[in-house]
């Protein structure tokens, strides 16, 4: 049985390329969109661009719009500290923070990603996490994920990242041009595909694992296109406490991740919260119906597996449909191939009040 966790993934190795906060620029995007993206800065000589370039985290804020990034504790907007009169953020990455004016919590950036998890900055408090989360925080597992691990999913009917990406685009037609979260992004294979497609203004690659985000950063450095780097934001975040304002995101994608979340209902409810009306949720996962449905006591066994591993076993399509519906999503649809299932659901565009007779 294949079990996978995508709530987390980063190795403690020190990168030769550092991240620094640069200018606060005004960019024309659609309303209510703050973007933080990677850009390549080069020095005078064109011959030394590759060797001396630095990947910088750049804050982009459109005038008269709100920052869609939010504190994962109170869900109020985050503001950048150390903003100078001329619009530049001069502090280095390690010294630059996003600050919540409501709960006074600060979130910092390191050389590879923003840390927007509730646990950001914790020094002494620790809590046990499910095996499904800790597995992909391991540096070796994170390194192997896109170098053979993910390819093994084909035995279960997964058609492969490129084909899965094309399938997902069909569900996302109505939100093209908006922003998208690649939840539990792992090493960022889908994040890069979304950015390369140029169908989205911004791609937020989120994962709980620092090591997976570091792998994502390493793959991103190998990309030749500056456009891809500009469109991608790497951030550590908890799927059950997404650092976005309610109703601010156009789409959420979760590739081979749903079964790895300790509480799929909490995660999908949080996804529903951040989606704007008409926003789309697309996910792939394993579904163990067929012969597995007739195994005696399988549901009891599933409870024990979930208790110790933190992974979830879905046994029928109706279970996934109920999950989406209970979290406020409608229009459930799916496609199947063996154990592989791709599902989609939408945030209602309008809230229909019950009629007097229904009351």
TrEMBL record:
The record's Gene Ontology biological-process terms are: methylation
Family classification: Belongs to the methyltransferase superfamily.
- Return the Gene3D superfamilies for the record: Vaccinia Virus protein VP39 (3.40.50.150)
Domain Methyltransferase type: residue ranges? 182-282
Q: Which residues form a coiled coil?
A: none
Q: Does the keyword Coiled coil apply?
A: no
Keyword tags: Chloroplast, Methyltransferase, Plastid, Transferase, Transit peptide
Which GO terms of the cellular component aspect does the record hold?
Answer: plastoglobule
Q: Name one GO molecular function term.
A: methyltransferase activity
What CDD domains does the database record attribute to this sequence?
Answer: AdoMet_MTases
Keyword set includes Protease: no
Subcellular localization is given as: Plastid, Chloroplast, Plastoglobule
What is the native source organism of this protein? Answer: Eruca vesicaria subsp. sativa (Garden rocket)
* Organism superkingdom: Eukaryota
Name the UniProt record assigns to this protein: Methyltransferase type 11 domain-containing protein
